[in-house]
Records
---
Amino acid sequence: MKINKNHNKKRRIVIALSTVGFLVLVSVAAAIAVAQMANNDAQPNTPSDTAIPESKINLDAPTQEQLDAAQQKKEDSLTNDQVNQQPTSSLGVTITASNQNNTSSLLQIRTLIDAITRSGTCSLTLQQGAVIVSRSADIQAGPSNSTCKGFDIPLAELSAGTWSLTVEATSGNATGKATSQVVINAN
Amino acid sequence: MQTKALLAPAHFRTLYLITIVLASFFIAGFVSSNAHANVAGWNAGRIMDDSVFVNNASMNTAQIQAFLNSKVPVCDTNGTQPSEFGGGTRAQWAAARGHSPPFTCLKDFSEGGKSSAQIIFDAAQEFRINPQVLIVLLQKEQSLITDTWPIPGSSQYRTATGYGCPDTAPCASQYFGLTNQLRWSARMFRAIMNASPTWFTPYVVGNNFIQFSPNAACGGTVVNIQNRATQALYNYTPYQPNPATLAAGWGQATCGAYGNRNFYLYFQEWFGNTTGPDYAASFKPAVLYIDESLTQPVPRAVSKYIVTPGQPLFTRLEAINVGRAQWSLMTNLGTSNLRDRLSSFQAPSWLSPQRPAALNSQPISANESGLFDLELVAPSDMSTYSESFGIVQDGIAWLDDTTTFNIQVATPAVGIQNYTLHRLTPGNELLPGQVLVSRDGYSALHLRQDGLLKLQTDSQVKWTPPSAGSDAKLVMQPDGNLVLYSKQGNAIWNSGTSGNSGASAFVQEDGNFVIYTSSGTEVWSSATSIGISHLQFPHNSIHRSEIIYSGQSLQSHDRAYKLALQTDGNLVLYSVNRAIWASGTAGKTAQKLVMQPDGNLVLYNQSGSALWSSGTAGKSTSALFVQKDGNLVVYNGSGPTWSSRTSGQF
């Protein structure tokens, strides 16, 4: 018992010292974190009217995080290289914007087609009850996708209220369609 | 006892647990803030400021090369190192997929006799895009900047910037190769920065629904895209990172799309802030003209304009506001390189010796373009000059971008053969080979070397007196008489207007050649007015209610394409080589082409019958443009309603 008691006492001293040391470390970490937060908070207040923003050219070797991200991208790219991709029979169409612009008096409708398509057409149908407004446009290819060549509908053609919106893209045998609704507000 | 006095065991255990919990909290927080520090400023609606995006002066070729070298300290050209993807060495891994060394790292790569650094720099300069943007693009698309063993023949170089590679089909070969890839990307970026009316994007500056991933089931949010640089980046990678992707720092997450996030991270870590100054500009290319209505470009030789002493020069500078602040009354054009220098080309119209022009109209908000009408007068000292101009927000800041004209002032014999004034003042002479040109550039009085004096409008001779033979001269005499003299000094023709001391002769924009007294009274004319001034409409376009008459034409800004309403009745669009579009109305005596207020472009004959139309009636106020890409387009608001579909034809 006595021996055990002495042993426990020593252990407690060691643990107590470790705890104190640990608390010191925590305090230092906390101080650094607080200083960092304070530094971050100060940045937005920097006057910027005539200040040239910080510019740098980092000539250090890449970080491991950058290398890991790059390796992942390389792997994805080379894997896709090995896949014998075939043209799809369907096009993924998304209506990305349907904005009422009262300055230009236009309803701007934009689309995203999930394939590069260098030919084809898009048809737009806006419907409110029995009233139908339609347009067609060519498809324009982008770097990794395509888009309908913009639909700008004069607001004069659209009465106030909710309109159903359909865009259908056709390229060769592939087609795709997206629907949405847009509310036209009275000017 | 001592230990017991310090802490009881139960209390100690409690304190210990609290300490561990607190420590974990602080350490986790500290590590976490480090891991995500660079994503902290991410703004899905403003990934990068326009001014940073177009800063093509950020690096020169040597700096690009040094940067590429730094990111690949050692290139594993022979693939002797173990493959990161397993399968033995890198060479063995590649061989199993049909590829073999040497693996040429980007820093050592060349194509068409140019180093990769030069290719990056050239694309950046050609389309005035920040080369750092192109560098990051190469990294985020194909990891080419840091890759120590890029695989030849794979997509890494073939589609280096990912241009032309669909998600659902094979890549398009016309875009293959480092040079092609960089040029296509930079060209597209520039088209978006210039708000090109012929380049459409899936997203607009404003509200857009942007998915988190190609998988629609992953959802998305409405993002207010605030500038064109961000619009351009989303045009490239049309997805935004979801919160989990942002929280992952450089890592991956469910439904993650990493293109735009990694672009932001790489740029921040390699080149600094993506935020630019409040005041910033990006000039569009400009050309000097000999006439105020900007139709006759000044001749050039080896990228220098050749002008004569005292010759007036004109241009309209267009600059995009790529900053955050609005341009105002205090926004002026200033002499630059060095800023506020005194220019030898100061014209009477300048606001001051250091301020050539003010904004044509203001305010100009971010993403909009401002115009400055600049007039120069060539100095008498015959030398070569480099005239640079920048934009200054007086009292606040100079804007970074400048535009420069290299001009050689030379004698007419060395420089241009034609003297390009539009008037003869008392005592002036028109010598063989010289031309008086109307301010709109459509009418000219030419004294040929053989002594024949010809007044032409739109290349048709409207008036000519008898030939005076070689070495003739046309003199505006101080007595007010305009006389064509032969070499022997015989008066071959005269206007009969002596007794009007101080009179001058003008080639007018309406095609008439007129002598006015010093008080402005017309005393003689060639009676060749076509009844309309070309100054009434811009030379490359007609707008609401404007008309082109038979024999007149429009031309694209670069003069490469011409739309002519021919006297045979046909409306024809010409490239420099051939006719590329026609209305098919030859032989139908068309009189005029009208851009009607209802949006319809109509060709009428003399009896008022429509011979051809664009079929765009009811599409509201429109304008017709002859574009530099060879397309003839009717625009309504911000969108085209009709085109000749001749873009890119030569």
---
Amino acid sequence: MEVGKRNNKQREEELDFASIPKNSGFKETFFRLCRNKAAVAGMVFLVLLILISVFADVLFDYQTTCVDQTISQRLQWPSAEHWFGTDEFGRDLLARVVHGSRISLSIGVAAVAFGLLVGGILGAVAGFFGGMVDNVIMRACDVFLAVPMMLMAIVIVAALGASITNLVVALAISSVPTFARIVRSAVLGVRDMEYVEAARAVGVKTGRTIARYILPNCMGPIIVQTTLRIAATISNTAALSFLGLGVKPPQPEWGALLSSGREFIRDSAYLACIPGVCIMLTILALNLLGDGLRDALDPRLK
Amino acid sequence: MLRYIGKRILYMIPVLLGVTLLVFFIMHLAPGNVAAMILGENATAEQIAELEHEMGLDRPLLAQYAAYLGGLLRGDLGTSYTSGESVTAKIMACFPYTVRLALVAAVVSVLLALPLGILAAVKQNTWVDNVSMVISLIGVSMPIFWLAVMLILLFSLKLGWFPVYGAKSWNSIVLPAISLGFMNMASIARTTRSSMVETLRQDYIRTAYAKGLSKGAIVIRHAFRNGMLPTITVIGLEIGQMLGGAVLTETVFAWPGVGRMMIQAINGRDTPTVMGCIVLLTVCFSFVNLIVDLLYGVVDPRVRTMYR
Amino acid sequence: MKKSLSLKRCAAFLLAACMVLSLLAGCGGGGGEKEPSNSTPSADNPDASGGAPAGKDSLTVALTDEPDYLSTCDHDSLMGVQMNLLTYNGLIRIDMETLSPVCDLAESYTQDSDLEWTFRLREGVKFHNGEELTAADVAASIQYAQTFAASAIYTGSMEKVEALDSNTVKITTSAPTPNLLFDLGYHFNFILPKSLIDSGNDFSANPVGTGPWKFVSWDKGNSIQFEAFDGYFDASRKAAIQNLEFVMIPEGSTRTMSLEAGDVDFVYSVASSDIDRLRSDESVTVEQVVSVENFFLFLNTVTTAFEDENLRKAVAYAINREDIVAGALNGYGTPSYSCVSMGYAESTDEGSYTYDVDKAKEYMAAWGGDPSTVTLDIICSNATKTAIATIMQNQLSAIGINVTINEMDSATYQEQMRTTDLVSAIVSWSPANAMTYVQRFHSTRRQNTPAGMADAHMDELVEEMNTTMDAGARTGMIQTIIRESNDRCWFVPIYQVNYFRAHAAGLQNVVCSATGYVDFCTMHW
């Protein structure tokens, strides 16, 4: 009989429910997303933010607003002339926030994306397979959690030099164990569900099982952690700049703006608070969009 | 279960080995000559070499590491390069403060975050949800020294309820714990909300409603427990982070914890102290992760198979 | 069950309300106007302080960093010396107001020859453990100090220290040493009990000396406690306050708030952003001291384009020091135009620089090179230095010099200074007197900073000054050295630090020295 001779691949192709074309395409997901007002607000904000950071040079001339100093005008509170006030060297804070958005967001997103990719794969593998694999990966994560980021940064500068890429690497390394543990716990909660069992019974390969069945059901905690890690990464960038990694004065960067406001927190609190609020709004927007996407893709909500 | 715990404790050994090896080599790769720093800028090259010899720093790296491990096995963490005291004494002077702060801050965090997250999930997409999201994001985006200074200005200077700095009296822990707890609650609140949102969509919740159970009973008895896995993970991660990384809080409130001491030791290239702190923190992280993993089994019976 | 939900709702509202309240509290404190602090010292608010109440017999001082050692020879840090001044004495004391050497444990001294000095000790001086001071203790202490490599500069000149009888000490130096009195006033040479030296006492855990304060306890990371020593030999400098406590508060704004709340009585180092506020607070007095510590731009005169004097001078004239002080120090510093700090008896500003961009451009032309080939890379080890460098970066672009700022941690910075890899650095330097200051111009300093200047003529001038015993002649020589170094511009001076210390207004007679110390003996409530 032919059945016995059919190979696994053919069976998989016949019975792989995941490859059945969905009714909902990209367009339908988009429309469902648009019904969620909060997600739309988030999307609009992010698009605006991207546009502002891309056209930063057009809005504010870098040299005159971010580099040239007017010491006599230092530490002025927001006014009609300077909407966000001036910093400790008399430079316009709004211009510096706008110019800083480009580099801060790219560094934040790149570092977290890298951390998510590596950490996510490690966590998924650890959670799914369990046993010795789980043990080895988790113990390796423990090792990296214990090493302080500052130490890692000093050594990266000494060994590899002080560039933006190395900054992203240092930041990403500190995110990997967190993502690994989060993804692992989410996978643990889902891997014994009936639909996973069903997929395996039918012969779906492990990689596909993880990618198509398990991970989409873990998106909640992953979205949350990703957006929060971006905020933490931006804050950490300043600490690493003090050690030489990454952004050098006079280039503006949100994390550096945050930390240079520390000295003036009592009389000129706006110096630290305004960048903080900008970070908060960005994270808020990302979060709303992320939640909206997850809801739009959730079949249970159709 | 006991076998599992035993195995995990045994696994701490390779982790400690890995961490100490990694950090040892990192400290030696880091630029900076501790003997020169101790002797000051007037020291000659001969004097520096002599001090290095005295401190055993001119031996091959692996020999130094082996000596350190030998000491570690005997329970001797060495002597600090910069202050000459025993590292064990130095760390034991600071560690209880760090633990106290981390635990109280974790309690504050959880007490703030859980209700916030559950409320946000139950009232998803209403203004309550959005306000609670903003509150939890304040902690993550605003710098901690801002919140700390605001708290001190209000509660110490204007009202005089709590001391400004330090750890002298019983109520010194309140402001630092509130700052630290508030800063770290975002993760817990948001994760709780997101898990609860997914759990509340499950069919068995619909069944419970249909059965006529009240909202509170459903939320607390059915939805809450089932969505807890990621939340427990995140609480564990936050406690771990607070144990080792509450440096800014400790600095602003002059709280004599391990975080600050470790940063000073790194700056001073005081390798024994750094190693000692990291050994301690590794043991702590391992225990926290162990407890979190055990709690998975308690909360979610499906996960218990892992422990056989 | 609905109750539990509304309870949760109430909790969330309460939380939001607390946040708003504290935001308002914060806004009230800093709306751009400088309102006088409306906090009350602890006399009115006894619950405010968590620690010991600041009564008339105790003083709580907030420090930034904890000293590593309470012993005399294991350190060379400012805070360490401040602690030493409490529990020990030397043969000589450097007076905090005049910065001149004054007899302390020595009642008198004579200089018998170029190389021989005899000191007569006071009678009846007691150590904290009851033992009486003898010449044997003096000899043992100095010999003990000489075993420490780091003390060489201050003890190396003394070839022999002998106890001629129980209260006469004879010191023989290997070469004429005009600086001997200053050296003896240095903490390495403070006197310890011979019996404790011989028994291997840990002077950091048990600092026994003859000083006006007795050590009580050290809670590491938290506080160090001293009490007044009743048996102190010098009645005019006996401690007026019974209990002295030092607490560690690393954050500037927290120190200020502690003082405002009355939790501490004295802040050793006030953050410059809080000076205005404290000055307008009537319950607080702010002491300002123009110190001799100065910050300068160190230049690699060996392997970079800055070996050319004209290029160095261009930089010296192109920077606006007033703006640097205003921008990086909130206005609280003294611009420095001369290579050696002003404030020493021998200081002079002959040949010093000004802010003159046109002159700077002339020097650039005199140098004749292409500015785009020169990058002035400045290494910085803390936020203040970075701020200074950022302002200089902006100012130097006016003469075409491109500045890059290289931040690094302190240990890496010190390592870089010991190489010739760096281009420039912002350095601070705080010697106790002009004689020590100008040693910097001698090439023996090169072994530690190989990128620094080395000039045979300067070496001659410094060596001559070192061996001149006559104070008047020495002054002239020091001034020659200063003029010469201003002329050659080995490094670019930026500003002299102003120390700001603040304390409760009730504390009287607070003496702060220009070298960075505070006299805790003379102050009283």
